[in-house]
């Protein structure tokens, strides 16, 4: 039997099955809210698996065009569903509100994360997490996307960790406490969900007291590339880490809930130093009381506009929010977003971005 799609015939049993399967998949796909970096991850996995696609299409043939459409839809639906589990978004059924334990990704993710890929792209987008310099009221994680050159023996974990160690944040408020010169010696997966990462001896000399947040920075950067990971065995120059910069570490470091370690308010668009049109949509994520995010538009040290917006869900879950600013004159602007303290009305959990209107 050929694997080439043929003409759809609703009177044929196989085609009727394919039609019904497409209807079910389409219904489920419309109910999904993809994460911010889901598209980049889906594209990367499709490229990586493209070489072997014909064999599994043939094995699961239902009937020509019906199978081709259904198989592609299944990849998209499953990948987005699993990746969404790691970002703290409200699940359909939540046993532990606010706990962002990463859901297992398709089995292909583990294979991709640990096995060479013959036709890896020369570069691709990688999410890197950073620590906010401001203690506002505590240091938390923010993320940026960067282009990273694929390693010769391409693995998502290796590339993600290498990008984190070598790439400085664009936003001047973000930093990394991993010492300069630290490199990745090896990265593997054990037990399907635990990353084993060995860093060079430089990693032992970080600042006292910053070990806990820095190891979560490392873990969430890994999870962004390999969503199935939920724990980390950290080694430095081959020796298992029991204490990082004065902070005790367990043998397997668990991922902390995103509600505890992510910045409570993120601005996800525009990016720092972006150039935009006179009408710009500000987008973000938040874990704040009743989903209320306060924003300010500033220029030349003064406040031009201020307001508040409600995210689509409130704490302890992660909500999405957006506001559109129109009619901006050419020039440089700063957008600030934060949670207003219920105690004294002060600014807490601030994120801000500079952008230019042309």
Please provide a written account of the structure.
By secondary structure, the protein is of the alpha+beta class. The chain has 3 domains: 77 residues, no CATH class; 150 residues, no CATH class; 93 residues, Immunoglobulin-like (Sandwich). The protein is 27% helix and 30% strand. The protein contains 8 helices and 18 strands. Strands 4, 5, 6, 7 and 10 form a 5-stranded mixed beta sheet that branches. Strands 12-18-17-14-15 form a 5-stranded mixed beta sheet, with no helix packed on it. A hairpin with an 8-residue loop joins strand 1 and strand 2. Helix 2 packs across helix 4. The longest helix is centred in the N-terminal third of the chain and has 20 residues. It is globular.
Helix content: 25-40%
How many distinct folded domains? Answer: 3
Helix run count: 8
The dominant shape is globular
Number of strands: 18
- Bin the strand percentage: 25-35%
Brief characterization of the structure:
The chain has three domains: 77 residues, no CATH class; 150 residues, no CATH class; 93 residues, Immunoglobulin-like (Sandwich), CATH 2.60.40.
Explain the layout of strands and helices:
Elements: H1 13-30, H2 38-49, H3 53-59, H4 65-84, H5 107-114, E1 123-132, E2 141-149, H6 156-166, E3 174-175, E4 184-190, E5 194-199, H7 211-225, E6 231-236, E7 239-240, E8 243-244, E9 247-248, E10 253-254, H8 258-261, E11 265-269, E12 274-276, E13 280-286, E14 292-299, E15 302-310, E16 319-325, E17 331-340, E18 347-357
Parallel strand pairs: 5-6, 12-18
Antiparallel strand pairs: 1-2, 1-3, 4-5, 6-7, 6-10, 8-9, 11-13, 13-16, 14-15, 14-17, 17-18
Helix pairs in contact: 1-4, 2-4, 6-7
